[in-house]
Structure prediction request, 313 residues.
Amino acid sequence: MKICIDAGHGINTPGKQSPDGMKEFEFNVVVAGYLDEILQNYKNVQTIFSHDHPTGRRDVPLRERTDKANNWGADLFISIHANAFGTGGWNNANGLETYVHNVVPQRTLDIANEIHKKLIEKTNMRNRGLKGANFHVLRETDMSAVLVECGFMTNYRDMQKLRTDSYRRTCAEAIAEAIVQHYNLDPKETQTNWTGSPALKRGDRGEMVKDLQRQLQELGYYDMDIDGLFGPGTERGVRNFQKDHDLAVDGFAGPATYEAVQKALDNPSTPSKEVFRVIVDGEQIGAYAEISNIIAQIENHIKDANEITIQRV
Ligand SMILES: [Zn+2]
Prediction:
């Protein structure tokens, strides 16, 4: 589905600011950006901004905003605002309200209701209700169009929230949640390939761990089940690989280890047949191509070991 996100106004639109100088656009654009970011995590969703993102230097005319959404064939238009009341200075008007055009089909009312409900639920703002209005962006859009006023810049208490990053994120999350539920959006597949980031460690599980185990196995550092559980066996494999490749031996499969593994896979300059495992009392200490490394490990362990095995990989 196609969603057009509109951060109302531009950064320098006259009058659109709090008594203590926060521009309305500063709030609108951050919520718009977070909303876009969240929606990117869902399948079959496309987004555009109808405002000048992210600077707002140009206050895109309302006609241009609605033309853009109409020509693109948006399914939903969501316009994000902060409210103002009075002729200057602080006053008591406060709370959150949501608008649709005066005459709208049921489907528009439904999504608007859900967005409004989620916003109230997640922000705990005073509920001023879902309202009808003859605003340009609601009237001239061919698709469902919803405009949210997330609090009053002219109310001192609302304003304390409007300026915080956490409140802006909460507003974006509420709007996104309503959209995801209403349109039954499916999340994108999670990452299945190990990329070194985030670092995998003991206790992790999933497709990325399987990928790591397969790669370690191919290099001769793992010979247990590819089960996607980062247990002691996987950790030992990572440590042994790190030992052999001049890496910090921490058992974390992070970016440096990832890079070295890819290099080893790309560059089989040391045929695996010439690598020998050194196993001390049943635990693999390392796998080495250099005889001197093997001898060094024997020297390290000979005093305390009952059995040292040298095994061709
Ligand atoms: Zn506004």
Notes: The chain has ten helices and nine strands.
